[in-house]
Structure formats: structure tokens, C-alpha cells
Amino acid sequence: MKLKPNKREQIFPLPVALISTISNQGVRNAAPWSNITPILRPLDEVLLASWLKRDTLTNIRETGEFVINIPPVGMEEVVMVCSRNYPPEVDEFEMAGLKPRLSEKVKAPGIEGCLAWAECTLIEEILREKFSLIIGKVVNLEVDENFFDEKGRMDFKKAKPLSCILGPEGLTFTCPRDTGRSADYSEMFLGGKGVLSPMP
């Protein structure tokens, strides 16, 4: 079966993040985001894709700052409230009942109750006809110690970071699950194996 272009996004499991910003007038904004990815490793830079008519994009352009908040399972209703197209003058923290978290390096607040907070500054905007690509630098990253060990590893079974799958009429919220297989990064290098070595 072949999928039409408007259905192709359904093949990707997507993360759910809440991007918090603040306008030049001091209005707080929070918006769910799935078109977001780290740019390689380590997590120094991130990439956001945005439609052009978004308050979040306007705020990032004006202030050069934003916070990536990682919500856990249980914040689905908050995410849906933040997804509504409120006018720019509406404080979405108030609408969604969000408790602001003081950021260390940027003026935009984080969101309490999330698993992690990546404070970012705008590095570059790549403008296309219908959308924009935002590259941000992570200037401060903090996590909830209840869900991370001393090495910074997330206990995702306990944390349950929110993700989603898009469908024809809407989306389904999901979260990661252990398949029973773990791998050390060293497995990605051939080492003593031949380039054409078959799988065991």
C-alpha cells in the first residue's frame, strides 16, 4: 500500500515537547511540539520546524529564546489545552493551569511537572515558503532527579516521557517501552569484524 503525501507523517513515532516562550510584552506562551530533534550528539543544538503563523515562532524571533519542556504521561490534557490557537495576548500558562519554573539562562520560564528543561537561544532561522527551521543552542539543561540517575540516564519506565502517533483524524498519545534488547554504542563499530560480516 502506498500512502499519499498528506498521510506520510503517520509512519513516524513522534516526541511530544512543550515549547515555552515569552513575548516582548511579557505574555507567556506554551505550545506542543513534535517536529523537533537534537542535531546529532551531544545535545548542543536542536532543530524545530514551525509553520509561519505561530506565536511561538514570533516570540523566538523577537526574543531569541525558548525552553523545551519534556512532559510525562499524565499531561495529555495540558498539551491539548496548549495546542489551541489562542490570540497572542492570551497567557497560555494561565489557560492550561501551568506553574512556571524559573529559568537560569533565559527569560522564558520552564514548566513545572516536566521531566527535563532545555533552555535555548536562537542561532539561525532557515526560512522557507511555508515553514521555518529554527536552530537553537542549548545553554542550560536540567532534569528532574527523580527520573534520572547520577550518570544522567533517564528511567523511562518510571518517567514515561510523552510521545504520539498521528492518524487520519487525530493523534494517539504513547510512551516508550522496553523491547528487551539493549546495545552498547561500541556495537555500532566494526572493530575486528569484516565490513560484510553477516548478522549472527
UniProtKB/TrEMBL annotation:
Flavin reductase like domain: residues covered: 12-157
Cofactor(s) recorded in Swiss-Prot or TrEMBL: FMN
Entry's family note: Belongs to the flavoredoxin family.
GO molecular function, one term: FMN binding
UniProt name for this protein: Flavin reductase like domain-containing protein
Keyword Flavoprotein (UniProt): yes
PANTHER family documented for this protein: FLAVIN REDUCTASE LIKE DOMAIN-CONTAINING PROTEIN, FLAVOPROTEIN OXYGENASE
Keyword line: Flavoprotein, FMN
Domain of life: Archaea
The species this protein was found in: Methanosarcina horonobensis HB-1 = JCM 15518
Flavoprotein recorded as keyword: yes
